[in-house]
């Protein structure tokens, strides 16, 4: 046997072994995937508990494994009546980062931004704007977002918008969410994709994130049961619905997603605190 033929046989043998081992290599890489190190909770998920005892509720949530909080204005301001120094001390004590808050971004924005900056928030988020009647109205909303973003930029914060399903419903042949994406300044405006709302509206969350890389830095993680008439009534605990979060979370990171925030608004056979605990358990075991 000449040297050239012997060499070819050796190469072929190695390729054969590689072909056999390749599936096991894939499996090994899957096993090596890291768990999600940090995830947050939108505190609206436990709004009644927050109203009764904000500090005590936040301590309980930290014990569940949440390392990040996203707030909301529950009628006492974005810090629920706490002074920024008091809130910051609490967060330091329980080891949680306050990343953002939903807020009325069109009212007293400078004052809210000062509070948010003092406790280390990165975002103030418009949680709801309502469906508009025309494309021009959506463009006007985009300009209002830019203006709010400019104000927040002066405080070292950034503006973001949280969608519902209405921005994923066609209007005059265009998608309102696209209008917002295309008419806002990326230097001033980010977006928080509520994956549940895009999903029940018929849009794949991951595909939409990939369509606008770098624009979605935060997301709401909540699951949807496979069947349901009203889009508002399909929310279920994470891991019990049809949204493939392990795949979405892993792949969305390469498009710029940084913050994964649990939100639970529907409670069947459970309580808000118990749901928060069970959702934390799910995410803490998720390999991405």
From TrEMBL:
Transmembrane segments: none annotated. It comes from the Bacteria. Gene3D superfamilies: Divalent-metal-dependent TIM barrel enzymes. GO terms for molecular function: isomerase activity. Pfam families: AP_endonuc_2. Keywords: Isomerase. The keyword Membrane does not apply. Residues 62-280 form the Xylose isomerase-like TIM barrel domain. PROSITE patterns: TAT. This is Sugar phosphate isomerase/epimerase. The lineage of its organism: Bacteria, Pseudomonadati, Bacteroidota, Cytophagia, Cytophagales.
